[in-house]
UniProtKB/TrEMBL annotation:
Coiled coil: none
Keyword set, alphabetical order: Antioxidant, Oxidoreductase, Peroxidase, Redox-active center
Entries under Pfam families matching the protein: Redoxin
Keyword Hydrolase tagged: no
Domain of life: Eukaryota
UniProt-annotated catalytic positions: 44 (cysteine sulfenic acid (-soh) intermediate)
Residues covered by the Thioredoxin domain: 2-156
Protein's name according to its UniProt entry: Redoxin
A GO CC term assigned to this protein in UniProt: mitochondrion
Spans annotated as Disordered: 1-24
One Gene Ontology term of the molecular function aspect: thioredoxin peroxidase activity
Length: 156
């Protein structure tokens, strides 16, 4: 599992708007990467709205991007974004459809029993110019404590 001080693998393609074309995340500057086990799941759908609501607060602290990364396809992450932020948001919803990015961080777990496939652990990374400054990983992916928007905000 990736730790503070380590570089985030920058060559792993993920998808945002175009479900057919992947590209690496832009990790220049200060960014937050929020890993969630599954779009539309109750814990994830209760966690992400606070990041959306606090987006301007995070920006005021120098955060360039907030990426919500799920091991789902881009059609699902786009639909989830539309449901959670029908008026739009600066929070970026990212599909790691193959799990390659999440796996390169050492943050994949076997979610086959409930979610049908390997999924992202619930984590939050504060990255600065592509390196991990801070990381929180929930021991229980159904819980949202150390990865909540309030918990991450105080780490900035």
């Amino acid at each position: 599992q990736i730790t503070a001080g380590e570089p985030i693998p920058a060559n792993k393609p993920v998808k945002e708007e175009n479900p057919e074309k992947g590209a690496p995340l832009d990790l220049s500057g200060k960014n937050i990467i929020l890993g969630v086990p599954g779009a539309f799941t109750p814990p994830c759908s209760s966690q992400v709205p606070q990041y959306i609501a606090d987006f301007d607060k995070f920006k005021a602290k120098g955060v360039k991007n907030i990426y919500v990364v799920a091991v789902n396809d881009a059609f699902v992450t786009q639909a989830w974004k539309a449901k959670l932020a029908p008026q739009g948001t600066g929070v970026r919803f990212i599909a790691d459809d193959t799990g390659e990015f999440t796996s390169s961080l050492g943050l994949l777990f076997d979610g086959t029993g409930l979610l049908g496939a390997p999924r992202a652990k619930r984590y939050a990374i504060i990255a600065n110019d592509g390196n991990v400054d801070f990381i929180a990983v929930q021991d229980d992916p159904t819980q949202v404590t150390t990865t909540s928007a309030d918990s991450i905000y105080v780490q900035l």
